[in-house]
Amino acid sequence: MDSKTQAGGRPRWETEVEILPIKSRLIDFEHPPAGTYLVTGRRAQRGYRFSKFCMSFMKPDVRAKWKDDAEGYMRDFGLSEYEKGLIREQNWIGMVRYGISPFMIFKLSAAFGVGQNRTGAAMRGESYEEFMKTRNVKDAS
User: Fold this and answer.
1) Residue 141 counted as domain residue
2) Which of 34, 64, 85, 126 has the fewest other C-beta atoms within 10 Å?
3) Looking at residue 98, which CATH number applies to its domain?
4) Within a domain: residue 100?
5) Residue 24 domain-assigned (yes or no)
6) Is 8 a member of any domain?
7) Cα(88)–Cα(85) distance, rounded to whole angstroms?
8) What is the pLDDT along the chain (141 residues), one digit of tens a residue?
9) How far apart are CA 123 and CA 40, in angstroms?
10) Are the C-beta atoms of residues 73 and 133 closer than 8 Å to each other?
11) In this structure, are residues 117 and 135 in contact, taking their beta carbons and an 8 Å threshold?
């Protein structure tokens, strides 16, 4: 086991809080609130190709390719096995930790037919019903 992985072979960044050596009077970067994942240069670089993959879902022909052969589209795009696993599992919060913008994740979740509120609930580790109690809009999906 190297310094980048932990027991079970999972990457450390997937579960550990990233402490940033940034000093600010407004934000305590050494003690981020639980569930907060700051977009850093390292995360953005790691997630760049995956973000482009998510962005591709803006095109109708891509959504059609996905519907016909999701595995083939992921392979042709050059995603790693880890990235493919995040997608297969619909692990939205794992994608955030990996470095994907929530806005890009919403494009991908829509391809699965999962609405933004359900995706948001999963990102927060809540049921859809729990999540909707925190919203100010009635009957949203």
Assistant:
1) no
2) 34
3) 1.10.700.10
4) yes
5) yes
6) no
7) 5
8) 444 555 556 676 666 666 667 778 887 777 777 777 777 778 888 889 999 999 999 999 999 999 999 999 999 999 999 999 999 999 998 998 888 988 999 999 999 999 999 999 998 889 999 999 888 877 666
9) 19
10) no
11) yes
